[in-house]
Amino acid sequence: MVDTLCPSCGSRSPDVLDVLTDQRRRYSCQRCGEVWVAGDPQPVPRAAGGRRPAVQAYSRSRADFPTPEQVEPDRRARVEALKARFLAEHPAPEPRVAEFWATYQRVFAEDGLDRADPKAFHFFANSPVGAYAGQMTVFNNEWKDLGPREGARRVAESVRFLLYGPEDQVIEDRLTYLVQPGCPIGMKGWKEALLTKVLCIVEPDRFLPIVTYGSPDVGKRALARSIWGLELPAADRTSMTLGRLVVWSNDLLRALAGDGFAHAEHASSFLWWAKDFAGDLAGAAPARAAGGSASRR
Q1: Average of per-residue pLDDT across 35-49
Q2: The organism sits in which domain of life (predicted)?
């Protein structure tokens, strides 16, 4: 008998569906059909020539991630001065965001996913309000091929696993599972950007609507470097999984941005604005007059 409990009904007789690359197992309950992942990530030897180290245990990996204390004091002071100017010029957030969030907080509620109109999922993926996830060509093509009903079912399955998955699995690792190639949950095109956008909706005070980690110039890693001079791990050269990098970099940027913003979307507007002052923040030149838009959209 497998020594793991179904998170839904408590049954002790699950089937093992497969073993993930980090040696965790994906189970299916024989009694109620619940699917979940259990176990701690284990180091996985890389093939010859591979450059990415094996996955480390969560606590060890978390302890190695950069912290706000690593920002040079002079640079932090320059960022704070720029933040004061931003808040003076842009004291109010984008007005459409709060209503959009409220709508989709109801859609993504655990009891709302199965009742949601398929059009709501499709609109969420393509709307730039709150967070722009980019061109959704892959998602839109898959949605068209599957049809709205099946597309909505797969989206709901993905969102449910991300937000309400096994309680003994942190959200970072649920996200990693969903974005891995060949994941049996979800659908094509509903990956890092849209899953991160979902997190922005359900936890608007925590998650910044910056929906990629490693994108040049606009990902969380690039913003940490250009604004605060912090070098975050490259996703393909670290033992930290993508889900952990996504969440931990979000929390780092949110802590660095600090208080004074209406919510995380307002803080992200400051980050998009501040990155254009990267040279000044690095001390390369005297600070110039503030200008430009508070939003990248």
Answers
A1: 60
A2: Bacteria
